[in-house]
Amino acid sequence: MHTLRVDLESRSYPIHIGSGLLSDATLYRPHLAGAQVMIITNETVAPLYLKALRSALTGHVVHEVILPDGEQYKTLDVWQRIFDALLAARFSRDCTVIALGGGVVGDMAGFAAACYQRGVAFIQVPTTLLAQVDSSVGGKTGVNHSLGKNMIGAFYQPRAVIADTATLATLPQRELSAGLAEVLKYGFIRDAEFLHWLEMQMPALLAREPAALAHAIRRSCEVKAEIVAADEHEAGQRALLNFGHTFGHAIETGSGYGNWLHGEAVGVGMCMAANLSARLGWLTATDVARTRQIIAAAELPLEPPSDLSAERFLELMAVDKKVLNGQLRLVLLRQLGTAVVTGEVAPEMLRATLS
Amino acid sequence: MHTLRVDLESRSYPIHIGSGLLSDATLYRPHLAGAQVMIITNETVAPLYLKALRSALTGHVVHEVILPDGEQYKTLDVWQRIFDALLAARFSRDCTVIALGGGVVGDMAGFAAACYQRGVAFIQVPTTLLAQVDSSVGGKTGVNHSLGKNMIGAFYQPRAVIADTATLATLPQRELSAGLAEVLKYGFIRDAEFLHWLEMQMPALLAREPAALAHAIRRSCEVKAEIVAADEHEAGQRALLNFGHTFGHAIETGSGYGNWLHGEAVGVGMCMAANLSARLGWLTATDVARTRQIIAAAELPLEPPSDLSAERFLELMAVDKKVLNGQLRLVLLRQLGTAVVTGEVAPEMLRATLS
User: Fold this and answer.
1) pLDDT at A318
2) CA–CA separation, B335 vs A116, rounded Å?
3) How far apart are CA A257 and CA A249, in angstroms?
4) pLDDT at B322 over 90
5) Which residues in chain B are closer than 8 Å to A155, comparing Cβ atoms?
6) What is the DSSP letter of B165?
7) What is chain B's mean pLDDT, rounded?
8) In what order do the strands lie in the sheet with B36-42?
9) Cβ atoms of B183 and B177 closer than 8 Å
10) pLDDT at A320
């Protein structure tokens, strides 16, 4: 087991990474607020791992909510079911909510924990690569609105993240690739050396070689923890973590939630951001080709859906959370391994990238 | 105009109290995050004060959401309409939400501001006595669930509270009395001298004499600001502000939201808490009689609805937010002017008070 720490003063917490952690009672015990535990999971993950998690919580009053699986269910309506369950079980303010699943489960469970009785204890047990390297760390929680992704939510830090790498064995290949998109992101925005390592190790990662996956997860969490510790509420550099996401969110919203996996949309978004970075003279044609190559090597799509017009893209991007004073701000690459936030993209350049 | 300050480090904010403040543009300007402003109000308040507030915001992009009036609409479903409006108007993270109205409007608008894009600027413009002395100050926001009051919400501080005492002129008498319940609360829990002043001034307060109301609001806000500054998230003494509320919430939930005004239920709750305090030997029979007398003088009811059995009371109180480890904790009076939180009430004593 490897343990990192997200350094946020009184809200600091550990990220435990390793194989078989799911059922290790000693990892949960220090973070449970009281006797009552509500597990939030989904219908895909529950048959695989719910029993193992429950076995780590003996002696506690454990209830569960099993949500439908998919981004299209990350809505306020489905989210309400968590409160129905918490109140039906008469859970008090010293209960603990545990998210067992991928990004959607973690985002909804975390947002419910943030709001139940104005905030209860929360533990993330991510079971997808995407959740282990990205969404379970850093406290962003929330749900989608039909007009925009993640538009309703809270910053709410978990008390612990318990990432059991053994759960990746059951992950569909498409979701593994989607998770690798976020892993690549850390290389693109912050660590050229890691990006190079990922290029070399991509076959091993796709073959789920444990040592390769463990290193990728660990390095991803290190970068994320560092950025979150420096800027918890995204007043500045945390926005860099949204590399590829402004384009990606537009693809997800515009195509109907659930048709594209989040990581797939981010993969395309990173290609588009690289294209735009080249138009600004920051990346070379070789850099862009290399970017597309490694995203393709992760078995991710490179092009947005053909029915999403440039006009529609602009419309969807106008509600992005990084818009300030009516000005769209984008995360682009100064070079491979160094990202910046910029509000100075000429509209015709953006339009050229979109079409 | 009188200005107090709620002292919460980077989240500190002013409470402005005075007549005619509603349309004073200079009070809003320092607290608006950007050009976009969303006013949340209700169908009763909008015809009275929306125009005046809008006049203070010229030069800004101002939209509004007009909610139905009443505690029965303080639900997640109605709350969603605020996000629909924010997203339809394409409001970005630098928008400002302004609550114009009573406690229900303030609680829902504040909770929406807390969650829109994970948090946007928020200003409280309370137009009821209850909101001016209590709910607009301190950052408690949220909505009700059919199984419990204020069960879903956030701690989210406004950037400013602008309490225009002239708006009290249009307040129905029943709501004035409901507000006085919360004013009396501050006397009961913290300030015997203020309680005495309130006994003397009750006729003047009911007659809405401006000087009397201004003093009552100011002293109430002082006590609240002091307690909130010491314990923002209710880890300790902030719970004292819930004097009368555990019983009161049970009455509100048990009678169907909207049938009792919050302040009315709190008035009865304070009588019940005084009764229980006497059973513990903390108050004398004279103290209890005096308590009932002043609550009656504020033209508030003294008895819970007759169809609410002791059993049902206990059931409803079991989901109170102050329950910890299955133990109901109550705010009771050591003497008039001094409250304590206690978990040591014998069940038979509580049952005697309830029946």
Assistant:
1) 87
2) 33
3) 10
4) no
5) 118-119
6) G
7) 96
8) B2-6, B13-18, B160-164, B121-126, B96-101, B36-42, B61-67
9) no
10) 82
pLDDT(A322) > 90: no
CA distance B284 to B277: 9
Checking ipTM against 0.85, whether it exceeds it is yes
pTM reported for the whole predicted model: 0.96
How many CB pairs below 8 A link A and B? 105
Q: According to the model, what pLDDT value does residue B340 have?
A: 96
HSE, CB side, 13 Å, CA atoms: give it for residue B99: 36
| CB-based contact B325 A148, cutoff 8 Å | no
Q: Kindly state the average pLDDT of the residues B164-188.
A: 97
Task: Report residue A92's pLDDT band, with 50, 70 and 90 as the boundaries.
Answer: very high
Do B319 and A92 lie within an 8 Å CB cutoff? yes
Residues of B with a Cβ under 8 Å from any A Cβ are 34-35, 76, 80, 83-84, 87-88, 90, 92-94, 114-119, 140, 142, 145, 147-148, 151-155, 233, 318-319, 321-326
Nearest to B152 among A83, A153, A323 (CB): A83
Judged by CB atoms closer than 8 Å, whether chains meet at A154 and B119 is answered as: yes
- Structural domains of chain B in order of their starting residue, each with its CATH number: 2-170 (3.40.50.1970), 178-354 (1.20.1090.10)
Of residues A114, A154, A324, nearest to B94 (C-beta)? A324
Q: What is the per-residue pLDDT for B179?
A: 98
Query: Catalytic residue positions of B?
Result: 118, 140, 182, 224, 234, 238, 242, 245, 249, 262
Residue B47 burial (10 A CB sphere; 0-12, 13-18, 19+): exposed
- Name the closest residue on chain A to residue B147, using Cα atoms: A87
Predicted pLDDT of residue B319 = 82
Cα of A75 to nearest chain B Cα, Å? 11
How big is the CA angle at B131 (ends B127 and B136), to the nearest 5 degrees?
110
Distance from CA of B79 to the nearest CA of A (A): 10
End-to-end CA distance of chain B: 46
Q: B93 and A321 in contact by Cβ < 8 A? A: yes
Q: Mean pLDDT, to the nearest integer, of B199-226?
A: 97
What is the enclosing helix (H) or strand (E) of B204? Answer: helix B192-206
Judged by DSSP in three states, A92 sits in: coil
Interval B59-70: pLDDT, tens: 999 999 999 999
Interface test with A, best of B75, B115, B147 (most A CBs within 10 A): B115
Write phi, then psi, for A70 (nearest 5 degrees). 140, 150
Report pLDDT digits (tens) over A140-177: 999 999 999 999 999 999 999 999 999 999 999 999 99
Is pLDDT at B227 greater than 90 in this prediction? yes
H helices within chain A, ranges in order? 25-28, 51-55, 76-88, 103-115, 129-130, 173-190, 192-206, 210-230, 245-255, 262-279, 285-297, 310-317, 347-354
